[in-house]
Design a protein that fits this description.
Layout lengths: L3 H25 L20 H28 L29 H30 L4 H11 L8
Helix pairs in contact: 1-2, 2-3, 3-4
Length: about 160
């Protein structure tokens, strides 16, 4: 049976390929003239498979660390922390349903959101720029230049 990490990676890969294919289909829809994607009997949608594979490779490489990062954040800042001094409930209700109310820890959830959207987003953006440039044959200098020029302001100082 696959682990949660493996399931998340497989799901991310399926979503990634699906979105890459749809993006190309939407982009080429109704496009004609120079630069138009042409269909053939081997490739009826006229898809450019290289970027699809590049994005898939990045997805397969980046999903596991991101999954583990989210687990780390949840372990440090649980959304539903256990209350100190209280024992876990042992429920034997004879088949009757028992509802236990959980209270979301807003502070922990906000911490996770801020850390993910600052530190996590910065690292993922830089990793994406480096990986895609490298997969397209860019040199180390090209990768560094892309991180400085293509990145949103504030992530990396020039």
């Amino acid at each position: 049976m696959p682990s949660h990490l493996q399931k998340a990676t497989i799901q991310a890969a399926i979503l990634n390929v699906t979105s890459s294919v749809l993006a190309q289909v939407f982009k080429s829809y109704g496009k004609s003239g120079p630069g138009a994607v042409t269909a053939s009997t081997l490739n009826p949608l006229g898809l450019d498979i290289v970027p699809i594979i590049q994005f898939l490779i990045f997805c397969l490489l980046s999903t596991p660390p991101n999954f583990l990062f989210q687990q780390f954040l949840e372990s440090r800042f649980p959304a539903y922390p256990t209350q100190k001094g209280k024992q876990k409930l042992k429920i034997d209700d004879g088949g009757e349903g028992v509802t236990v109310e959980k209270k979301v820890d807003i502070r922990n959830t906000a911490f996770k959101f801020v850390i993910d959207q600052t530190l996590g987003a910065s690292i993922n953006t830089i990793a994406f720029l480096l990986a895609i440039k490298a997969m397209r044959g860019g040199s180390l200098e090209d990768c560094a230049r892309d991180v400085k020029t293509e990145n949103s302001p504030g992530y990396v100082d020039s």
